[in-house]
Specification:
The structure is a single chain. This protein is of the alpha+beta class. Strand 6 and strand 7 form a beta hairpin. Bound molecules: 2-acetamido-2-deoxy-beta-D-glucopyranose (3 copies) and copper (II) ion. Pfam families: Sod_Cu. Keywords: Signal.
Length: 188
């Protein structure tokens, strides 16, 4: 009897601790789910930047789980950061206006305030890549990371094909944007 009672206390303490650990804002629809259904591992989409603000590419490659991103850019002014970078829902329109790329890819309805907890990436907006993988200081940037929650299966949330990558400066202004374009197979 006493042993059962101690067990109950232990369980109570454990759930309290779990409750505190989960005091982190997550999506209204819950935590983001890993994408494990990419149709073709290695499928590659590229956003190409060629403006005064930034030059280079953000490459997205379908992985076993999620997307492997590579940011390879130059030109971000070192005194205007730190820079954020996101997947926004819409492609860049013909006008080139970054204002018209819509909001962040956010299928779980997390929104970007309060800022997300990078150690718990599943609680972040899917498109909030800098929130999950770190701001950029500027200068020459080469950065690689896997994001489990982005994908290239058109029927799943988290689909990034044809959406845009947007860089924001330290003030939050959208300083550059480019649409993710599929690279066709060049073999055979
Ligand atoms: C839980 O998070 C809310 C919102 O961020 C905060 O106001 C509150 O103080 C936190 N509670 C604890 C116990 O950390
Ligand atoms: C895309 O995801 C759906 C739902 O999870 C799955 O049924 C389908 O097989 C996937 N598509 C491909 C090409 O793997
Ligand atoms: C994705 O990145 C992981 C970790 O670096 C690597 O093991 C894997 O081979 C990569 N997948 C693709 C398709 O590039
Ligand atoms: Cu953004």
């Amino acid at each position: 009897m006493q042993r059962l009672f101690s067990l109950a206390i232990l369980l109570g303490v454990a759930s309290l601790t779990a409750g505190q650990a989960s005091n982190v804002t997550t999506g209204a629809l819950g935590d983001a789910q890993p994408v494990t259904t990419n149709p073709e591992i290695g499928e590659t989409w590229v956003a190409t930047f060629d403006s005064d603000a930034v030059k280079g590419t953000v490459t997205a490659v379908a992985a076993e789980v999620g997307i492997n991103y590579t940011i390879d850019v130059t030109g971000l002014a070192e005194d205007n950061g730190p820079y954020k970078y996101h997947i926004h829902v819409s492609p860049v329109p013909e006008s080139g206006s970054c204002a018209d790329t819509g909001g962040h890819l956010d299928p779980y309805q997390r929104r970007d305030t309060p800022p997300c907890e990078s150690s718990l990436p599943q609680t972040c907006e899917v498109g909030d890549l800098s929130g999950k993988y770190g701001l950029l200081a500027g200068g020459d940037v080469k950065k690689e990371f896997n994001d489990a929650y982005s994908g290239l299966n058109t029927t799943e949330v988290g689909y990034i094909g044809g959406r845009s990558v947007v860089f924001h400066d330290g003030s939050g202004a959208r300083i550059a944007c480019a649409t993710l374009v599929k690279m066709e197979d060049v073999c055979e």
